[in-house]
Design brief:
The complex is a heterotrimer. Chain A is of the alpha/beta class. Chain A has eleven helices and ten strands. In chain A, strands 6-7-8-3-9-10 form a six-stranded mixed sheet, sandwiched between helices. Chain A has a four-stranded antiparallel sheet with strand order 2-1-4-5, covered by helices on one side. Chain B is mainly alpha-helical. Chain B has a single domain, classed as MetI-like (MetI-like fold), CATH 1.10.3720.10. Chain B is about 70% helix and about 0% strand. In chain B, helix 4 packs antiparallel against helix 6. Chain B is globular. Chain C is an all-alpha fold. Chain C has one domain: MetI-like fold (Orthogonal Bundle). Chain C has a two-stranded antiparallel sheet with strand order 1-2. In chain C, strand 1 and strand 2 form a beta hairpin. The longest helix of chain C is centred in the first third of the chain and has 38 residues. The chains are: A alpha/beta, B mainly alpha, C mainly alpha. Chains B and C meet through helix 1, helix 2, helix 3, helix 4 and helix 5 of B and helix 1, helix 3, helix 4, helix 5 and helix 6 of C.
Chain lengths: ~280, ~300, ~290
């Protein structure tokens, strides 16, 4: 179980009713959540709701806790040294931090793609198989699912004929799309993307952005980015984080208009935030 | 005159470069030393090799009869090494897995310094502990007259090679970047699956190198084995009985070299055994370095 | 602890349990080793023990001459190995451009490292004691120990030299320094920590060696301070060996524990100093 920081807060939402909760608005509900590395407080007392569908961008300057928040949603941050938390996060109705004694089950319901494309040193096909470990499938069933996922990741045409090739022979942009496809094999309802285009060239980045937009039509995509133009292009909702606190959140049209707060407008136009 | 040629020192110095000559001589001397050692061993092995009917490939060792069968000590060396690896490798691997997966780097550093300390304990001290404790415990456990048996030597040797194997294996496991673990866990893989499918394939070359190095140490260890093995120049009967006394090449050398006359066929037989041992350990070490330094991309 | 959700989860719990168990076994073995050396040896250890000569074949008395003999031999070995290791490492780093030769050098050093200690003893016996007719001599022991230390010290020195940033060499060459001057003013000072730590680690191993020296350098009793290079000494490891073979005598055993503790403390002191200096000198040398 992950470390609890010495001052736990009340969790307002702790719903173990299961699937019904998901029908309420918000696939992910964060309540009074704070995250720490040792004594350093990275996120302080954040509460928000992330919708069930659409692309939500976590925007803000580097080091303000966007990635940390994302990584606590599937609890991958508990692998990091000295990381602790207080508060609660609810994913699809279950409290992530207390309601899942087997954290691997939680991670099967969410998919995550990291900033640096990380394909395993085996063939493309074997990479895709990794996500199917928990399901007993015949070879043909597995092949169907893999083909579907590769198609949803818009990479099927490029690699259909070379599935047995080592995954490391792909370009970086292709590898990242492979990582997205690999995560999609789990059929997650929530896809977590941690600055997925930061290490990729601009042309491949556009391809990935288009992919994200199309994925957002069916599932909740939560993407961390510090690229303001990218957020403007693909986000349905934007959450602006600065210094571990939410400055403002809203739809894309609201955030990128004159109606947003002054701090937001300053950041969007001048990329400056005086946190 | 380019900077490149300046760097290469192609401009002739005005006086002879003494430092350079000295360094060249040192390097040559290092190579010469190795050759001299190997050559000396080979030459001193000749008397026994050239004397016919030496029984070298037999199992009887009787200097008075001119029989110098090396099979029994050779078998003993391999048997003891086997027991040592059965003990050290599984425990070492599992412990290395635990250490490499632990979150706290402070704990990791602490464990590694303790392991270095353990690896620095001289082998004679291990041998003495074997005599003072292990012999007695093993004798009590198996209800034997004496604990000076192959099993004791194997256990002691296993304890000796454990720290070295553990450190090197842990290095190999930690060398696999953290992002592979994160990606695998995000896909819903359990920790043992992360290890077997992702970590181990990438670390196995380093682990093989660690294992070979540990094997080399096990084969070459003298003092500890000598004190607890019983020095019996016979193949155990039945053949794979670890509860009998035995002999390894190193324990035999340790006991008899001081007592045999220089220049005799007896002495030459001992030197020949030593030469065989050296050949095996050098081969193991070179092979292990090859594994340890191979980059993952070559695999 | 065993909160099982499905079959794969169960396998994971077993795996984690096995790993934890192995760690506990290792810790147990470690505690047993260090603990027994310490608790048994500390009762035998005293200033009197350290500075009194041994008597009645080691069963009573102290270990003064053994301590002296050990320290004399390893310190002489260090003095012998230092120039050779330095020259060899410098050659590999600064003066050699032939990759074939570099490969041969590497393999030679690995081979030296791989030779078992008892074989070094046999070699010393053949080459020095008999062929060169030196007889049992502590200095020959130092020579053999120096050869054994050679790979360790050379490698440590070489690694320290290779770690010097190329920019130092480039700047020095741009100032017009010859290769030898670069060696003297840049390479040697910057790799000093590697030389020192390599020596200390080599010393830590050499002081515990028994097999190389027991045929060629040591005698068990009647030995005090050697008056020449070709006399025997007694040393801690060989002393422990003799006492271990009298294991039925409790007094001998106790002295053996005391000698073992002394030996372990000496070896630990050398390698502890090496670790300490490695972090100290390294951080000062590189910004």
């Amino acid at each position: 179980m992950p470390d609890k920081h010495p001052k736990p807060q009340l969790s307002l939402v702790k719903n173990s009713a299961g699937a019904d909760a998901a029908a309420q608005s918000g696939a992910v509900k964060v309540r009074n959540f704070s995250a720490y590395y040792g004594k350093n407080c990275i996120i302080s007392d954040v509460s928000l709701d992330l919708p069930e569908k659409g692309v939500t961008c976590l925007l803000g300057p580097s080091g303000t806790g966007k990635s940390t928040l994302l990584r606590w949603i599937n609890r991958i941050n508990e692998e990091t040294e000295n990381a602790s938390f207080s508060g609660s996060i609810n994913v699809l109705g279950l409290d992530v931090l207390e309601g899942y004694p087997d954290v691997t089950e939680l991670r099967r319901r969410t998919g995550m793609v990291f900033q640096q494309p990380c394909v395993f040193p085996c063939s493309i096909y074997d990479n895709m198989l990794m996500g199917l470990r928990n399901r007993k499938l015949s070879k043909s069933e597995a092949r169907v699912i893999i083909e579907q996922s590769l198609k949803s990741a818009a990479i099927w045409d490029e690699i259909a004929h070379r599935l047995e090739d080592p995954a490391t022979s792909l370009s970086l942009g292709q590898q990242q799309r492979l990582c997205i496809a690999r995560a999609l094999v789990l059929k997650p309802s929530i896809l977590l993307l941690d600055e997925p285009t930061a290490s990729i060239d601009p042309v491949s980045s556009r391809a990935i952005e288009d992919l994200v937009i199309s994925l957002g039509k069916d599932i909740a995509v939560i993407m961390v980015t510090h690229n303001i133009i990218q957020a403007k292009r693909i986000a349905d909702n934007v959450i602006f984080l600065c210094d571990g606190k939410i400055v403002e959140q809203g739809t894309r049209t609201h955030m990128f208009s004159m109606r947003s707060s002054e701090k937001t407008r300053t950041y969007i136009t001048e990329e400056f935030c005086d946190c | 005159m380019s900077t490149a040629s300046l760097l290469r020192g192609k401009i002739a110095p005005r006086r002879r470069d003494v430092t350079k000559a000295y360094c060249q001589a040192s390097a040559v001397l290092s190579i010469v030393i190795v050759s001299v050692i190997l050559l000396t061993l080979l030459i001193q092995s000749l008397p026994v090799l050239l004397s016919g009917d030496n029984g070298l490939l037999g199992t009887r060792w009787n200097p008075d009869e001119g029989k110098f069968g090396i099979i029994a000590p050779l078998f003993g060396s391999v048997f003891v090494m086997l027991i040592a690896t059965i003990i050290a490798f599984p425990i070492g691997l599992l412990t290395a897995i635990y250490i490499s997966e632990t979150r706290s780097s402070k704990l990791r550093r602490f464990i590694k310094s303790v392991l270095e300390l353990l690896a620095g304990i001289p082998s004679i001290v291990y041998g003495f502990i074997g005599v003072a404790y292990l012999n007695i415990w093993v004798a009590d456990l198996f209800d034997l007259q004496s604990g000076r048996i192959i099993l004791t030597a194997g256990i002691l040797l296993g304890i000796m090679i454990l720290p070295t194997f553990l450190t090197l294996t842990e290095d190999a496991l930690s060398a696999v970047p953290q992002r592979y673990r994160e990606n695998a866990k995000s896909l819903g893989l359990y920790r043992h699956e992360v290890f077997t499918d992702i970590i181990f394939p990438q670390a196995k070359v380093g682990i093989a190198g660690a294992g070979l190095l540990a094997l080399g140490r096990a084969l070459g260890e003298t003092m500890a084995v000598m004190l607890v093995i019983g020095s019996l120049d016979r193949l155990p009967s039945p053949l794979f009985n670890p509860l009998s006394s035995g002999q390894t090449i190193t324990s035999k050398l340790g006991r008899e070299v001081g007592e045999s006359a220089f220049g005799s066929v007896h002495f030459s037989a001992l030197v020949f055994m030593s030469f065989i041992l050296v050949s095996i350990t050098i081969a193991l070490t070179i092979l292990s370095h090859y594994f340890l330094t191979r980059k993952q991309a070559d695999v | 602890m065993f909160n099982v959700r499905n079959r794969r989860h169960f396998s994971e719990q077993c795996f984690a349990f096995a790993a934890r168990l192995s760690l506990i076994i290792c810790a147990g073995v470690l505690l047993f080793l260090l603990g027994s050396i310490f608790t048994q040896g500390i009762s035998a250890l005293s200033l009197e023990f350290l500075f009194t000569p041994s008597s009645s074949f080691g069963k009573s008395g102290g270990i003064f001459y053994q301590l002296f003999g050990s320290l004399l031999m390893v310190l002489a070995a260090a003095l012998l190995v230092l120039p050779l290791a330095l020259g060899t490492a410098l050659f590999c780093n600064s003066y050699n451009s032939n990759t074939g030769l570099a490969h041969v050098m590497d393999q030679s050093l690995y081979a030296l490292n791989a030779i078992p200690s008892v074989t070094y003893g046999i070699f010393g016996l053949i080459f020095f004691v008999n062929l060169l007719n030196t007889g049992i001599s502590w200095f020959v022991g130092s020579i053999i120990l120096a050869i054994m230390m050679l790979p360790t010290v050379t490698l440590s020195t070489y690694q320290a030299m290779a770690a010097i940033p190329k920019i130092y060499h480039e700047n020095a060459a741009a100032l017009g320094l010859t290769r030898t001057e670069i060696v003297r003013r840049v390479t040697l000072p910057q790799s000093f920590h590697g030389i020192v730590t390599g020596l200390l680690i080599g010393l830590s191993r050499a002081i515990g060696e028994t097999a190389p020296i027991m045929f060629i350098a040591t005698a068990f009793s009647g030995v005090t301070v050697p008056q020449s290079l070709v006399e025997p000494v007694s040393t801690l490891p060989t002393h422990i060996l003799e006492l271990a073979q009298q294991s039925t005598d409790p007094q001998a055993l106790q002295n053996a524990w005391g000698a073992s503790l002394t030996l372990v403390l000496l070896a630990a002191a050398f390698s502890g100093l090496a670790l300490f200096l490695r972090s100290r000198l390294n951080s000062e040398g590189h910004q």
